[in-house]
Design goal:
By secondary structure, the chain is α/β, with parallel strands linked by helices. Helices cover 32% and strands 20% of the residues. Strands 10-9-11-1-12-13-2-14 form an 8-stranded mixed β-sheet, sandwiched between helices. Strand 3 and strand 4 form a beta hairpin. Bound molecules: zinc ion (ZN). The site of zinc ion has 6 residues, from loops.
C-alpha cells in the first residue's frame, strides 16, 4: 500500500527541440539512466500545469500542481513572498513584494537593484514599522535586493497598481487604485505616503552615505509591486491528510510551501544555483519520509539556465540531477514518487512557455506503460496522457487511496 509521497518539481524543465542538440530538447539530449529507469518502471504523461495555452508563472503553477487552484487561492505574489521571509498576515492584511533600488532626487530610477546589493537587512530595518494613514508597514529583507511588506490596518484592498516601473531611467510610478473604491484609494494613498517616508529615511542613512563614498549605488528606495490579500488557505494536512514538508533553496518555493502549511526542511548547500546540492536534497527527501507523508522537493537551476539561453548548461545540470537520482532508488516501497515541472522554459525563448511538461509517477503497484525514457517526446506517449495541473494531486490521492476533496 502506497502511503507516502515524494513530489519533485524541476523548475522550467520542459523545452523545445534545439538544432545544436540534433533536434532534441536538453532533457532528451542529456544522458539520464536513472531517470529513464524510473520512467520505465512508472507511468508517464504530459501536464499543462495551469491549462492548455496558459503561460504559467512559477507561483500559480506550483499552487495548481499542489492542489490549490490559483482562481481560489491566489490573490497576488506579495503574500507568498511575505510568508517566504517569515512574515505572517491575517485576513484583511495586504502584502507586497519589492526591490531595494536607487533613485535620484526626482525619483527617477537609476538602478532597480541598487547595484545588486548583496544584503538589504539593514535597509529593511530602517523602514520597518512605519505607520502612515493608520496603516502599519512591516518590512523584511529577502535574498539580495528583495524585500516583502505586510500592511495592516482597517479597510485595505490589494486592488492597487505597482510603483516599480520595471525599467530604469524613468520615474517611479505613483501607486493608484485599480478600481474606484474607498478601500483601494485608501490603500494606494497609504503606499504613496509610506514610499515618501521610507525614501526620506533611506536617503539620510549613514550606510547609504558610506556606499556612495565607496562608489556604490545607495539603496534609497523600495520599489513595490505584486500586491495581494491574505486569503484563508487550508493547510496541506487539513486539505489532503498529509503531514507535509518542503525542501527548496529558492524563497518563492519556500513561500508557497509555507502558505499551505508545510514545514521547511533545510539542506546544506541548497542554493538554488547550478552548484546546488541536488544529491543532498534527494538524500534528505528519502530520510524525512520517516517523519512526513508528503515531501515536496524543488530544484531551480533548470529554469535559470534556460532563461539565460544556456541549453548546454541545462543539459549538464539535468545529468547532475540524474546522478543524484540514485538516492531516490533508496525510497521505501510504500512511497509514491512524482517527477515533473512547473512549466517549460525553452532555452531559445529564454522565458516560460505554455508547452506541457513531462511527468512520471512511480510506485509499487502503479500501472506502467511503454515509455522507456524521461523526455518530452517519450512522456507524450505515456499512459497518463496529457492533462491539466489540477489533475496531478487527484492522481496522487487516487494512488495513495486518500479521500479526494475533489468530489466523489
Ligand atoms: Zn518556475
Amino acid at each position: 500500500m502506497l502511503r507516502k509521497v515524494v513530489f519533485v518539481v524541476f523548475d522550467g524543465l520542459g523545452d523545445r527541440p534545439i538544432e545544436a542538440l540534433g533536434g532534441l530538447t536538453p532533457l532528451e539530449a542529456a544522458r539520464t539512466p536513472n531517470l529513464d529507469l524510473i520512467a520505465s518502471a512508472g507511468i508517464c504523461g504530459m501536464v499543462y500545469t495551469i491549462g492548455r495555452g496558459v503561460m504559467p508563472g512559477s507561483d500559480t503553477s506550483h499552487l495548481n500542481l499542489l492542489g490549490y487552484p490559483p482562481s481560489e487561492f491566489y490573490t497576488g505574489r506579495g503574500p507568498i513572498e511575505a510568508v517566504g521571509v517569515g512574515l505572517r498576515g491575517a485576513a484583511g492584511d495586504v502584502a507586497l513584494r519589492g526591490n531595494f533600488g536607487t533613485v535620484d532626487s526626482d525619483w527617477v530610477v537609476r538602478d532597480r537593484r541598487a547595484g545588486r546589493i548583496a544584503n538589504a537587512t539593514r535597509f529593511a530595518q530602517v523602514i520597518d514599522g512605519i505607520t502612515v494613514e493608520d496603516v502599519r508597514f512591516t518590512v523584511r529583507a529577502g535574498t539580495a535586493h528583495r524585500a516583502a511588506v505586510v500592511m495592516q490596518g482597517q479597510g485595505l484592498s490589494s486592488q492597487i497598481t505597482a510603483m516599480d516601473p520595471k525599467e530604469e531611467g524613468v520615474q517611479v510610478r505613483c501607486c493608484n487604485p485599480l478600481y474606484d473604491t474607498r478601500e483601494a484609494s485608501h490603500t494606494a494613498k497609504a503606499v504613496n505616503a509610506f514610499a515618501k517616508e521610507a525614501y526620506g529615511r533611506l536617503r539620510d542613512l549613514q550606510e547609504n552615505r558610506e556606499r556612495e563614498a565607496q562608489g556604490l549605488l545607495p539603496a534609497n528606495f523600495l520599489l513595490l509591486r505584486g500586491a495581494g490579500a491574505f486569503a484563508q488557505v487550508p493547510s496541506f494536512r487539513d486539505r489532503f491528510g498529509f503531514r507535509a514538508c518542503c525542501i527548496a533553496g529558492g524563497g518563492l518555493y519556500k513561500g508557497v510551501a509555507t502558505l499551505v502549511g508545510m514545514d521547511l526542511v533545510e539542506v546544506e548547500g541548497a542554493t538554488a544555483q547550478p552548484d546546488t546540492n541536488v544529491r543532498g536534497k534527494f538524500r534528505k527527501a528519502v530520510e524525512v519520509t520517516a517523519d512526513y507523508d508528503f515531501v515536496f522537493v524543488h530544484v531551480k537551476p533548470t529554469d535559470s539556465l534556460a532563461e539565460d539561453g544556456n541549453f548546454l548548461g541545462k543539459k549538464d545540470f539535468i545529468e547532475k540531477i540524474d546522478a543524484a537520482a540514485e538516492e531516490l532508488r533508496k525510497l521505501a516501497d510504500d512511497v509514491l514518487l512524482v517527477l515533473t515541472a512547473d512549466h517549460s522554459t525553452p532555452c531559445e525563448l529564454k522565458k516560460h512557455s505554455a508547452d506541457p511538461v513531462p511527468i512520471v509517477i512511480h510506485g509499487r503497484g502503479v500501472r506502467t506503460d511503454a515509455v522507456k525514457s524521461f523526455g518530452e517526446r517519450s512522456c507524450a506517449q505515456g499512459g497518463l496522457g496529457i492533462f491539466d495541473g489540477d489533475g496531478v494531486m487527484k492522481e496522487v490521492l487516487n494512488l495513495t487511496a486518500r479521500t479526494s476533496i475533489f468530489g466523489s
